[in-house]
Amino acid sequence: MAWLVLEDGKAFAGEEIGFWPAAYPPRGGEVVFNTSSSGYQEMITDLAYAGQILTFTHPQIGNYGWHREENEAGKILLKGLIVRELSAGEGSFHADGSLEDYCRKHKIAGLKGVDTRALTRYLAKYGYRLGVLVKERGAGERFWQEHPPEVFRPARPLVYQAGTAEEYLIPGSGPVLALLDLGVKRNLLRCLQQRGYCLYVLPAGTPAEEILALKPQGLVISNGPGAPTELPEIAAQISKVFSRLPILGIGLGHQLIALAAGGETYQLLCGHRGNYPVQSSLTGRATMTTQNHGYAVRRDTLRGTGLQVLYTNLNDGTVEGLSHQKYNILAVEFYPEGAPGPENEAVFTRFDQMVRGRAVHA
Amino acid sequence: MPKQKWRKVMVIGSGPIIIGQAAEFDYAGTQACRALREEGIKTVLVNSNPATIMTDREMADLVYLEPLTLEFVTRIIEQERPDGLLATMGGQTGLNLAFQLAQAGILQRYGVTLLGTPLRSIKQAEDREDFCRLMQEINEPVPASTIVTEVEAALRFAAQIGYPVIVRPAFTLGGTGGGVADNAEQLRLIAESGLKASLIGQILVEKSVAGWKEIEYEVLRDGGGNSIAVCHLENMDPVGIHTGDSIVVAPSQTLTDREVQMLRRSALKIVEALGLEGGCNVQFALHPATGEYVVIEVTPRLSRSSALASKATGYPIAKMAAKIAVGYRLAELSNPVASGRSAFSEPVMD
Predict the structure, then answer these.
(1) Among all residues of chain B, which has the CA nearest to that of A283?
(2) Residue A362: pLDDT over 60
(3) Of A171, A236, B61, B275, whose Cβ has the fewest other Cβ atoms within 10 Å?
């Protein structure tokens, strides 16, 4: 028996899975949930979940095993996972291993047998909560009496850990793009590569001058973990290239573009993690998108920034995408590269047109 | 919002409940009648089956318990003068009647508009040759097949595509003379008897995908080209065992997200190419080890799977298909099972 103890004292029981050595400091972070019915592997390896404990609302996880080629990153920064029922993964004929083997190997702790429905309803009602994974409930309660909520706050924003430390090149025969790596997913790289781009993947802290010195024909700002408001230094660099390059921002990249233009962001009560419908204000078309964001752009702060809303969430009306009235800027809060979830071709096509000079803003 | 306001719509039911055509169509038809009445549309129901809740007085404004034949339905149209006809709720019976009414010029004569998926889309989905041609155009794989009139041609084709192959004689009485061949020896025997059994001396030789995973997608598409995969289903038994004899699980449990998305993308592409307006089922065979897939068939109407998918997800597919038929876009409708959310949604766990 082991426990997830939330900062407000609420506790959920389960059984240990993955990595639980005898002496190990309590592991914790923000507890979030994802409502998708497939794609647990892509979620676990999505660096935008860095520092978080991920709960799956789908009642059985691990059922199709673990597939090497489905990892979205080479490193794992997730703090823990919580499932209702863990499957050994007999359901696949071509798996490389099981979910639990992977967790053990990569030192991820988790709980199974948790009433994930109760936990999800609790989070949906009261909003985001921090939690610790502990072997005894009392230890968790003591932990929160002795520690402030800032205990799990990293010394440096997580994007610097999630993104690449060194610049690297992905060759391609098409236009050269700079990609600011805040925790990029492999499938985004794959999608851009398939469109022929040559990619300079750059560390999160790369200054605008260095980006421009590469003479790229466009800039991509990837998704990543954490709060956009903790990254004013990156927003400042982005604002310097607004008028110089076509820009595509995704997830955290979308939020940073809004901040760079003078807009504001806020933390959602319990975030969007799973599949959500969005509608384009340009075409009126609705599409399903895959999302993972705890922050959103405040619509009423966009006036005067030059940005306009391009995609709106059909469920709660949140801003899910932006374009610029003057510059070639396209930003989406959802993952156009899917993985897990559906890809959104239209976003890449529009960016293609911006880079290859066939269309401009608005 | 719908461009046109419909005054009176006729709904065709599925007739008697028989094996293979069961109560799921009552479920669909009942939901459709309710959805139309919500819109203030007068509904006229024709169904020969008195033993269904659908023909209870409170479901439709007018109920005709009459035989589902061209003659009777024509007379009802003459009398009621509906301006719309909804024929995709009553299984194959409903669709066949719609074809007959269109062919006999009845719909045109009385100014009745067929609502939902247009007839040419339905025809394209149901006619094997038309369908395969369309799949080729949009680059979606179907099992390799050919029509031959002699045994040697069948053997040559099988040698080219590999065994096992399925032999289906064209125009037989009672479907006799076909079978699955694992090698040339078997094929020679089956092809011979098949050619004899066919009234026109033709057999179809098709690559067998027996043993592959059988996966289905329930798709809704509105007239504006917005589509969603409401649900995907995985049959416990592989291709080769009829879905009606198998247990079906929703959502699929053994597919990776990459496989789920690959088939979803294909299903949405197919309904887009067909120009469907309403509900539809797309059936796939997926190789368990290699991830290769083929499109087996498309059912361009509400089916048994739609009813199962509605029950599994809580999403009222038939009701939404009826709203689409009278001109709504999915994004204009709210989700009746998740308050405050859009009907343009793919069910999730919460």
Answers:
(1) B224
(2) no
(3) A171
Q: Tell me how far the alpha carbon of residue B84 is from its chain's centroid.
A: 21
Q: B288 and A63 in contact by Cβ < 8 A?
A: no
* Structure tokens given for B249: 């699980």
pLDDT per residue as tens digits for the range B44-85? 999 988 877 777 778 889 999 999 999 999 999 999 999 999
Which domains can be identified in chain B, with CATH numbers? Answer: 8-115 (3.40.50.20), 125-141+210-332 (3.30.470.20), 145-207 (3.30.1490.20)
Residue A362 lies in a domain: no
Total domains, chain A: 2
Please enumerate in sequence order all residues whose Cβ is within 8 A of that of A241, keeping only pairs 6 or more positions apart, or say none: A208, A211, A212, A219, A247
Residues in chain A whose Cβ is within 8 Å of chain B: 35-39, 41-42, 57-60, 63-64, 67, 70, 91-94, 117, 120, 124, 274-275, 277, 279, 284-288, 314-316, 338-343
Domain residues for the domain of A234 are 159-355
Q: What is the CATH number of the domain that holds A304?
A: 3.40.50.880
pLDDT tens-digit readout, A195-236: 999 999 999 999 999 999 999 999 999 999 999 999 999 999
* A144 and A185 share one domain: no
The residue count of chain A comes to 362
Burial class (CB in 10 A: 0-12, 13-18, 19+), A167: middle
For A92, the closest of B254, B257, B341 (CB atoms) is B254
Residue A93's closest chain B neighbor by CA?
B289
Q: Across the interface, do B329 and A286 touch by the CB < 8 Å criterion? A: yes
Residue of B226, B261, B290 lying closest to A286 (CB–CB) = B226
pLDDT digit string, tens, across residues B22-49? 567 788 888 899 999 999 999 999 998 8
Same domain? For A259 and A302 the reply is yes
CATH of the domain at A96: 3.50.30.20
Q: Which residue of B has its CA nearest to A94?
A: B289
Question: Residues of chain B whose pLDDT is less than 70?
Answer: 17-23, 172-176, 349-350
Q: CB-CB: which of A37, A93, A279 is closest to B348?
A: A37
| Residue B282 CA to its chain's centroid (Å) | 8
Strand-by-strand arrangement of the B113-114 sheet: B62-64, B42-46, B8-12, B84-86, B113-114
